[in-house]
């Protein structure tokens, strides 16, 4: 995976048991590129935060964590937003406004990446941004 960004994290290594528990709970399998990334950069924040999504500059905040009761816990974030998320959308990161970057598991073996504008709308907008995790990571500038 080509990634020209610099990432930092204050979190310890991800507990793979927690990752597998989330996969089991959601009935999905995270992409291998994502797993490799979070093993090194669990809860990471980028130096270059800007993404261009549909002509709009979006400021990426961080990847969600696999630590129960953490502010960025992936299950807590999902549980807070699941009633407003489109079907088969599972969050893995968040922007500075609280909108979500999600894996979209349609009928494909590899999920695409969708940006879901959950704030301030009661009817979230979902915007396709990448065919896979690798393509998503290449979009930071």
Features:
globular; alpha+beta; 141 residues; SMI1/KNR4-like; six-stranded antiparallel β-sheet; 4 helices; two-stranded antiparallel sheet
Number of strands: 8
Assigned CATH superfamily: SMI1/KNR4-like
Tell me the number of structural domains.
1
Mean pLDDT: 90
Terminal-residue CA separation: 16 Å
For the biggest β-sheet, the strand order reads 3-4-5-6-7-8
Helix and strand composition category: alpha+beta
Level-1 CATH class name: Alpha Beta
CATH topology-level name: SMI1/KNR4-like
Radius of gyration: 14 Å
Listing every helix as H and every strand as E from the N terminus to the C terminus, the arrangement reads EHHEEEHEEEEH
Main beta sheet, described? 6 strands, antiparallel
Fraction of residues in β-strands: 25-35%
Low-confidence stretches: none
From the 3D coordinates, which CATH architecture would you assign? Answer: 3-Layer(aba) Sandwich
What is the share of helical residues?
Answer: 10-25%
Total of helices: 4
Shape: globular
Protein model, in words:
The structure is a single chain. The model has no long low-confidence stretch (mean pLDDT 90). The protein is of the alpha+beta class and 141 residues long. The chain has a single domain (7-137), classed as SMI1/KNR4-like (3-Layer(aba) Sandwich). The chain contains 4 helices and 8 strands. The protein starts with 6 loop residues before the first strand and ends with a helix. The strands form 2 sheets. The protein has a 6-stranded antiparallel beta sheet with strand order 3-4-5-6-7-8. The protein has a two-stranded antiparallel sheet with strand order 1-2. It is globular. It comes from Paenibacillus xylanilyticus. InterPro entries: Knr4/Smi1-like_dom, Knr4/Smi1-like_sf.
């Amino acid at each position: 995976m080509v990634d020209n960004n610099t990432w930092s994290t204050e979190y310890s290594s991800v507990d793979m048991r927690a990752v597998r528990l989330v996969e089991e709970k959601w009935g999905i399998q995270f992409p291998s590129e994502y797993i490799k990334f979070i093993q090194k950069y669990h809860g990471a924040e980028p130096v270059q935060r800007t993404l261009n999504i549909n002509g709009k500059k979006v400021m990426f905040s961080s990847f969600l964590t696999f630590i129960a009761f953490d502010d960025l816990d992936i299950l807590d974030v999902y549980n807070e937003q699941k009633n407003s998320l489109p079907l088969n959308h599972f969050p893995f990161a968040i922007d500075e406004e609280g909108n979500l970057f999600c894996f979209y598991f349609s009928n494909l073996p590899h999920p695409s990446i969708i940006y879901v504008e959950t704030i301030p709308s009661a009817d979230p907008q979902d915007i396709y941004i990448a065919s896979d995790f690798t393509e998503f990571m290449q979009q930071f500038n």
